[in-house]
Amino acid sequence: MAARSERAGLITRFAPSPTGPLHLGHAYSACLAFDLARKQGGTFLIRIEDIDRQRARPEWEAQIYEDLNWLGLTWPEPVMRQSDRQPAYEAALDRLWDMGLLYPCSCSRRDIQEAASAPQEGVPRLGPDGLVYPGTCRPGELPTGVRPRETALRLDMRRAMQRIGPERLSFVECGGSPGDETGEIGISPEALVSEIGDVVLARRDMGTSYHLSVVLDDAAQGVTDVVRGRDLFEATRIHVVLQRLLGLASPRYLHHRLIRDDTGKRLAKRDDARAIRTYRDSGLSPQDIRAKLGL
Ligand code: GLU
User: Which GO terms of the molecular function aspect are on file (predicted)?
Assistant: First the structure.
């Protein structure tokens, strides 16, 4: 895999999960990233986000390549696949464990729901990963010894903030936040603790998580500009924390508007009516798709 130093200039990527058909929202993300790279003489990469082995299917992956090719996009081969990257994820988990920032958690979704809605907890708080973890499994003492396997591991956000210390946390937004802010977006350590909390970095069934993998893979691919939907804007705060803890540079971020259906709802994977395949079959051209997306 090409390291940052081997590729000059801007590097961006499209990182689909092969768990369903490519729809208009994906096409928008992919074309925006591709056009940005083309305009700047940069590189557009693909990464297959297939850590969810239960849901990822080779047929969907094949369909993604076919649809992207049909749209006129090209990219260097081989593509990065998250299913090949487990050793890198394990190494990062070891580092975070050795820093005393992870702890095992055996809570089910239901346990979290119940603990978070206990009267003394007040109103349950919702973060980018669902309910903010109420801390049931968080140990008082730093966990030591060998990192446990086959269990979920959470990041102790308060300790992570102590470790980072007074350094200002921020990232550069080139697209738009949900409130349309651009430029340097500051991240408040207090809000990280109260609004995001102890996120899961290794899921029991995966040995990693979206947040950890995306940060490590963007760094390994030398991505300078992440183009993705605004639904991931809040998660960027988590990604910046992981980049600081692991000594990785933060890319610039361009969060784009979400493509909605005719009733204003966000498109979902199962929304086959807006699958690129369906448009192709009904005789639309790639130019028609671009026109539909305002590109
Ligand atoms: N794999 C994610 C998705 O399909 C994209 C993640 C990202 O661009 O950071 O929604």
Answer: ATP binding; glutamate-tRNA ligase activity
pLDDT at 1: 40
Q: Which of 60, 214, 250, 253 to mutate to test the pocket of ligand 1 (most atoms within 8 A of CB)?
A: 214
Question: Which long-range CB contacts under 8 A does 135-144 form with residues at least 24 apart?
Answer: 135/197, 135/198, 136/105, 136/107, 136/111, 136/112, 137/103, 137/104, 137/105, 137/106, 137/107, 138/103, 138/198, 139/103, 142/100, 143/97, 143/100, 143/102, 143/103, 143/104, 144/100
CATH topology of domain 10-84+260-295: Rossmann fold (3.40.50)
Residues with a CB atom less than 6 Å from ligand 1: 15-17, 49, 214, 228, 232
Angle at 207 between CA 204 and CA 145, to 5 degrees: 85
Same fold, 10-84+260-295 and 85-223+232-253: yes
CATH of domain 85-223+232-253: 3.40.50.620
Rounded CA-CA distance 177/2 in Å is 30
Q: Would the pTM of this model clear 0.70, i.e. be above it?
A: yes
pLDDT mean by block of 10 residues, the chain; 295 residues = 56 97 95 97 97 94 97 98 97 97 94 83 76 93 90 97 95 87 94 95 96 98 97 95 98 93 68 86 96 93
For ligand 1, atom 5: residue with the closest CA: 15
Ligand 1 atom with the shortest distance to the CA of 229? 8
Task: Please name the residue that has the structure tokens 């990182």.
Answer: 15
Report the pLDDT value the prediction gives residue 254, as an integer from 0 to 100: 97
Domain coordinates of the chain in residue numbers?
Answer: 10-84+260-295, 85-223+232-253
Q: What's the pLDDT score for residue 114?
A: 87
3-state secondary structure of 186: strand
Contact 54/25 with Cβ under 8 angstroms?
no
Element (H, E) at 280: helix 276-281
264, β-bridge pairs: none
